[in-house]
Amino acid sequence: MLKIAIYGLGTVGQGVIKILRTMDLEVEIAAVFDRSRQKKQAILQGIFATDNVETVLKRDDIDLHIELLGGIELPLYIVRSAIDKGKNVITANKALLAEHGYTLFNLASRTNSKIGFEASIAGAIPVIRNLETVFRGQKITRLEGILNGTTNYILTRMRQESKPYTEILSDAQNLGLAEADPTLDVSGMDATHKLAILSSLILNEWIDYRRIQTRGIEQIELNDILYAQKMGYRIRLVGQCEVRDGLKHVILEPMMISSRHFLWDIEMENNAVSLETEFAGPHLFVGKGAGQNPTAWSVISDIQRQLTPNLPNFAEKPWQYGIPDDAGNIQSPFYVRALVKDEPGVLAKIAGIFARHKISIATVHQDNPHNASQSDGKTADLIIVTHTAKRSELLKSVEEITSLDEVSAPPVFISVIEPEN
Amino acid sequence: MLKIAIYGLGTVGQGVIKILRTMDLEVEIAAVFDRSRQKKQAILQGIFATDNVETVLKRDDIDLHIELLGGIELPLYIVRSAIDKGKNVITANKALLAEHGYTLFNLASRTNSKIGFEASIAGAIPVIRNLETVFRGQKITRLEGILNGTTNYILTRMRQESKPYTEILSDAQNLGLAEADPTLDVSGMDATHKLAILSSLILNEWIDYRRIQTRGIEQIELNDILYAQKMGYRIRLVGQCEVRDGLKHVILEPMMISSRHFLWDIEMENNAVSLETEFAGPHLFVGKGAGQNPTAWSVISDIQRQLTPNLPNFAEKPWQYGIPDDAGNIQSPFYVRALVKDEPGVLAKIAGIFARHKISIATVHQDNPHNASQSDGKTADLIIVTHTAKRSELLKSVEEITSLDEVSAPPVFISVIEPEN
């Protein structure tokens, strides 16, 4: 009989208890820590509950400590204390792992503890388990993930309904699909936390999330979404980790996804992880990125795992820090849109700038901005898609284009993602 | 050190050896059985090889027997002999499992053998492993799979290039993507073998593939593919297993996939498995359905598994036969196309037939057949999409429509698949 303790009885914690009660596992919920346990007596029936975290932590009979709180400080204390004692832990807390995973994993490798964290990344998608077992022993050469449901939902609806960011965001907030303060999601930081963890597993070196080049979706204009659609692309917030020519590229930002790419069709609040593997070809995993039962199931799946000893676990070996290479080295085609004065010579100047940076242009077209306030007949959107270019050269070009008199605002640039084959 | 024997050194077998040589596993290839081993001395360097199957089978030091032959008789003998001795086996042979899985799994549950069969279904996609571990303990309420790469490739190219079945099939044969005798693939039988196995795992009862309602793609006309596209659907050969209202529905045939469904975007020779789960929501797994390394990796993944004892395995409990319920009970919307005389009253008659069978019509339109030989101005395609209807009633309606004087051939009918939510 596996004795578990659950810390935090929010949506996911309650889901875990409900599902465990429908199952016939050799698992006993020995203790629950929750500060508002008084209000949750129905679900807690027959389970020991306390608001004193020490009461639970000090019990030697508990084999597995499951941290489902929010925040960082208390979760860190709980997880570290449990690992210190050589106990196994499960956490759904990606911010905790992004901030302190390096320390926790190394501690666990010394005390022989296992860390289950399936629920911390991409909700219900069993990506950690598959990386830890099925794909073990082969290189993952490229990962691309839609790791945040809220931003994918917003981008999907902007395209489907031709509505601007602020309008869809506020609707998503009303529907409970975006937080009142949406910063963590729309800035990309939540997805970057998850990308940092996934990249660490793939690169086999711990990646500090602060080192990951990150842009959110706040600056995405409907304009660009509609142009993308016209060209057969969709804009998604994508986390990418790739090893190419010996360089480690880790980046999270809005990208233009080709219709040939697995991520093209991942709509609304779904999450997805696409892998290129050394031997097993390309893979795609799709599932719910959030939600009570889907996330709770990832916890249950980690609990079931503890019932099978000797399974490989990412916490079993010591970790070293790794540093992503300069994102300026990343190569891809780019979409660039500049709001320009509609007069002769502008294209020549811009094309000249790209030429000086050895960036070759695949397509150019000019259009009236969808944004009515800019549609004054005197300015036009100049839309350029480049062939594969080095990001640092692209950034320099964009800077020079910005300084042109005929250009009224810094151009938008978004990398274009095609599948490997 | 795990000692393994490999039977059959074709594409996959050679892939397994090549990959194993790049890895640092506690695995020794103790013997290879292959009848043309003389021609394969390069890959066999340092490995004991024989064309005498008994020499390998009788060796007690071999822990794991890996069957990668074609056909049924010899594979059955090898797998059964190994299981009889309480040894573990891996097989990539779906025909073997579809024909004899019931016997083999029950034998294995008695002798405590494990059967690894990841490579037998959907190539590189780790669907067996995930069903066996991650999803264990929750009901899978619905599975839909694209389980045959050749047919998905043919259907994709027919749509993309607006070319008829025979032309794309012969091109696929020239490219090595379809067999000289393509019957097993295009009749749906290969996919039905795999669906039988997947359905067994999900329903927890052994499903005989002969009981599965099966239609292949030989009858699919370009006409229907183009009409489907116009309506926002794609025709794919889909295996479906669903438990609904207590009935077990298992069916494999061409279906019209809604653009909202995960399988809509699975193109060319990719395979995919879409699951609806009790707790973890919808899931999609996509990967290569064939190919040397992708399939070999599924074998490697099963080998690695053997290095971890105590893992759950589908062969660990005795199996009972289950019988799918009458496919006539399956409900879905249907696409029906009839080639009719272009004269007044035909629609009234056909609508009357549907009405008598209590099938309500969602959309009707009439079009000129894309097939030039039928485009004589006197006949037209009448295209009807029904609301959800019982398949048995739909079949009766189709039969009655066939008997109308104004209808020149049995109408085409294809069920329409929408996602759960």
Give structural notes.
Two copies of one chain form a homodimer. Chain A is α/β, with parallel strands linked by helices and 421 residues long. Chain A has three domains: 2-116, Rossmann fold (3-Layer(aba) Sandwich); 127-288, Dihydrodipicolinate Reductase, domain 2, CATH 3.30.360; 330-417, Alpha-Beta Plaits (2-Layer Sandwich). Chain A is built from 14 helices and 20 strands. Chain A has helices at 11-22, 41-44, 53-57, 73-84, 94-111, 127-132, 149-161, 165-174, 183-186, 189-203, 222-230, 292-306, 346-356, 391-402; strands spanning 2-7, 27-33, 49-50, 64-67, 88-91, 115-116, 140-146, 206-207, 213-214, 233-244, 247-258, 270-277, 282-288, 321-322, 331-332, 334-341, 361-367, 379-386, 389-390, 412-417. In chain A, strands 7, 9, 10, 11, 12, 13, 16, 17, 18 and 20 form a ten-stranded mixed sheet that branches. In chain A, strands 3-2-1-4-5-6 form a six-stranded parallel sheet, sandwiched between helices. In chain A, strands 8-14 form a two-stranded parallel sheet. In chain A, α1 (11-22) packs across α12 (292-306) and α4 packs parallel to α5. The first copy, chain A, starts with a strand and ends with a strand. The relative contact order of chain A is 0.13. The mean pLDDT of chain A is 94. The A-B interface holds A 19, 23, 25, 124-126, 129-130, 133-138, 262, 264-265, 277, 279-288, 291, 293-294, 296-298, 300-301, 304-305, 308-312 and B 15, 19, 23, 25, 124-126, 129-130, 133-138, 262, 264-265, 277, 279-288, 291, 293-294, 296-298, 300-301, 304-305, 308-312. β13 of chain A pairs antiparallel with β13 of chain B.
